[in-house]
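Annex B, item 7. Sequence and structure tokens for protein A, then protein B.
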Amino acid sequence: MSAANSSYHAFRRWARATLAHVAGVHGGGSDVAREVYQTSTMGALLDGVYDGDVTIGELLEHGDFGLGTFNRLDGEMLILDGVCHHLRADGSARIAELTDRTPFAAVTWFTPETRIPVPPGSDRAAVKALIDGALASVNLVYAVRLAGTFREIRTRTVMEQRPPYPPLTEATKGQQETVLDGVDGTLAGYRTPDYEQGISVAGYHLHFIDGDHRRGGHALDFRVERGSVEISARSELHVSLPRTPQFLASNLTPANIAGQIRQAEGG
């Protein structure tokens, strides 16, 4: 990636973030300030559609915060402050290339609307209850970011697959889990309404990266030592559907889709 291309994409992300912030400050009149942009659906991922046509560079034109995965299901994605982190199956993390592609991701321009301190010792259930108690409605999408020190956090990361691709419930079996103790870092993702199950992941979908941006993954469980959570409501969902042969031939409404998603996500 050339310095010129890097500077160009950085400027585009800065300009879009500035416009979104201005719109939010002056009445929230812009769709950009309220929108989650998503490529493909969780139902397609369940059916083994692991190759998408959207690059990370293109994805970052729609937001500076989000999560997803990479083509061939090669690890987890976490986007913070306009930087796309590639979380690998061995628990390591690196910055993704702008030319990498994704089969599923959701991004937004993150502007915190609510900040809440997290009581020391809070586990995943307590943090979810804390956030739920601060929401105006469970019918909106919420971007959630928790930064602080974690007494313990348990993660796992999907492994790169080879064609013919298995369904997601098979691909996520037997994955190696990583437990980090006494680590600073950021837990980020979305709380999505139940009615979006299959389009997205209903409920909480969170990824983690440590303060050094060297380790991370899909968050299974955690306990907070100290920290605060930031919340931002979103009322627009833009779903961009791929036109790849694999997506066009996939089954997007499998039986027991909610159970399959819970199994695949470890929740």
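Protein B:
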Amino acid sequence: MTRPGPTAGQRQEILDRTRTVAVVGASDNPSRASYFVATYLLASTGFEVWFVNPRVDEILGRPVYPSLAECPGVPDLVDVFRRPADLPGVLDETIAVGARTFWLQLGLSDDALAERGEAAGLDVVMDRCLKIEHARFHGGLHLAGFDTGVITSRRRPLRT
């Protein structure tokens, strides 16, 4: 990834204006990153969250939609958990439904795709975790287990 992408302040503005999130590639498997992010979004944000996966009917007791076009409305932000080869199609769907932000999770980036998304008027965030970014800007990292307050590699002694 050579494109700088939105600054921290711009990412915070994106999250502050976001009301609805579509998680494309959401999984009902608790060991998958998308499931972990989904539980955080439902429990710790005010976002309305829609799951998109053509092979799953329900995740965390909520309906799953086979495509972005079948979601109950236009998502403000599309959070993508898909293989790199699938990203152009997801971008096409994101543009077609009229979403404002195309967000690629950790490990996903494509400069040409970002240029195409920005040319279509989207904010494009690549290689960032929506959960981590939300927690970072809304004071929840300590609750999510990323900031334990321990600045050492030594284990704490066992209490007896």
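Comment on protein B: The helical segments are 8-17, 33-44, 87-97, 111-119, 130-137, 141-144.
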